[in-house]
Amino acid sequence: MGYEEHKHLSPKNVSCAVVIVSDSRTEKDDHSGDFIVKSLKDSGHRVHSRCILKNEAGSVRSRLNELLGDDDLQVIIISGGTGISHRDITIETVSPMLDKKMDGFGELFRRLSYEEIKTGSVLSRAMAGVINSKVIICLPGSLGAVRLAMEQIILPEMGHMIREATR
User: What pLDDT does residue 9 have?
Assistant: First the structure.
C-alpha cells in the first residue's frame, strides 16, 4: 500500500492537547496557542485541553505523563522551550521519553523555516516523535514558526501520523 492509500485511510478527526512552555506568556497574550487551537478546530480536530507551563522540566514531564495516560488523546503539541537558551528545556525533557523519533519532522521544519528566516533556522530544535502510540510534536514558540508548522506539516499529515503510530 502506498502513501496516498495510507493517507486516505487515516483518521480525519484527531484529539489533540496543546501545551505552551513559556516563562512569559499568559492566556491573554498566547497568540501561538490561540493559533494552534483555532487551526485544529477549523480543520475538524478536537482540542482535548490547553495549558501554559513554565520552562521547568518537572512541570513539563508531569503534564506530559498525565496526558499520556488519557486513552482518548492522540496528539500532544508542545510549543515553546525549543531554542538554545539555558531556559529552553522542552527538547531535553521530551526526547528521553520518546519511543520513536520522527527525524523528518525537524528536518522538514528547518528546511521550510529557512525559506522564511534564512540562517536563523539553525536555532530551531523542533522535533516530533511517538510515546505510547501518541504523536508528540515540539515546536518553537513564535507565531510564525507555529503557523508554518501547522499549515505546512502538521495539519496535512496529522491523521497519517496517528494511523502509523497506532499500527
Answer: 86
